[in-house]
User: Which sequence fits this backbone?
């Protein structure tokens, strides 16, 4: 049975390129998006030949509004689209206090604004159709904000929160959404950020193919949040439960007693 088309951003390298390969292997036609025209052309030709699917390259610099509009127009105009995979993203060069402010703003725009635009556009279209799926690549740093560049961490926390919140609206419409939280994954992101990949402990570094295989297995199992490294899933379940325990205490008429501000009417 035809799977329809998957549109993948950041498909010219790393995690996005592996998604392109794996989804072509699952029989999806593809629209692959990134800036590098030549790489997209080589990849689309190879995947079409090897998997017998249709692969269209859609070159776009998503940080430019005209190019982003091309991609949203594709989402809106192609009735065969059944899946959006948001992989385009950049990492930081150094800590937030020393990184170039412009690079941090660019990172927020690409990792947050662009992903938000594409996700909400696709969510509305898929909800209207009553089918479809969105996969958002976040990061484990969303769960450990003290351990990485503040801006990058916050951008990935946005992706996680957006995904979990939208799932509440999308589930009744028959639309799937998943946040994938990779740990260190062997891709070009480190080179691009000027980080020596060999300085990272290799027992913390997963190959991109293994990461995506696990993420797709998590998708098949119906997971909303997939953490490929996490062997003991009860640790995540306890974290979600703790949030649930906290929830009834977070918005009340009066301030907590420990602030000692006295009783108010
Ligand atoms: N690798 C890790 O350790 C790791 C861990 C957790 C999360 N992630 C996340 O995984 C995602 C994919 O990263 P990766 O590790 O696969 O890195 P990567 O190999 O550097 O891939 C990044 C992709 O984004 C594209 N891209 C960058 N800027 C773009 C722009 N302005 N417009 C369109 N496309 C753009 C790049 O293509 P062009 O240069 O051709 O445009 C490339 O295809 C990112 O969101 C990243 O934050 C990575």
Assistant:
């Amino acid at each position: 049975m035809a799977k329809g088309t998957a549109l993948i951003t950041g498909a010219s390298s790393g995690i996005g390129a592996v998604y392109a390969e794996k989804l072509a292997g699952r029989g999806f036609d593809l629209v692959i998006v990134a800036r590098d025209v030549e790489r997209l052309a080589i990849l689309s030709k190879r995947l079409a030949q090897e998997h017998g699917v249709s692969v269209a390259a859609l070159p776009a610099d998503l940080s430019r509004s005209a190019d982003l509009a091309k991609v949203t127009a594709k989402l809106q105009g192609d009735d065969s689209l059944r899946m959006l995979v948001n992989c385009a993203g950049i990492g930081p060069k150094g800590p937030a206090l020393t990184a170039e402010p412009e690079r941090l703003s660019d990172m927020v725009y690409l990792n947050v604004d662009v992903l938000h635009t594409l996700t909400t556009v696709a969510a509305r279209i898929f909800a209207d159709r009553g089918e479809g799926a969105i996969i958002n690549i976040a990061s484990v740093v969303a769960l450990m904000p003290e351990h990485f560049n503040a801006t990058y961490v916050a951008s990935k926390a946005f992706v996680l929160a957006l995904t979990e919140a939208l799932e509440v609206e999308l589930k009744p419409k028959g639309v799937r959404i998943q946040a994938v939280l990779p740990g260190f994954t062997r891709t070009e992101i480190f080179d691009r950020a000027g980080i020596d990949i060999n300085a990272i402990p290799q027992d913390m570094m997963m190959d991109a193919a293994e990461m995506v295989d696990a993420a797709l297995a998590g998708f098949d199992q119906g997971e909303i949040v997939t953490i490929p490294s996490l062997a003991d899933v009860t640790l995540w379940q306890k974290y979600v439960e703790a949030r649930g325990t906290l929830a009834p205490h977070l918005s009340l008429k009066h301030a907590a007693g420990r602030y000692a501000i006295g009783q108010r009417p």
User: Anything to note?
Assistant: The first helix runs from residue 14 to 25.
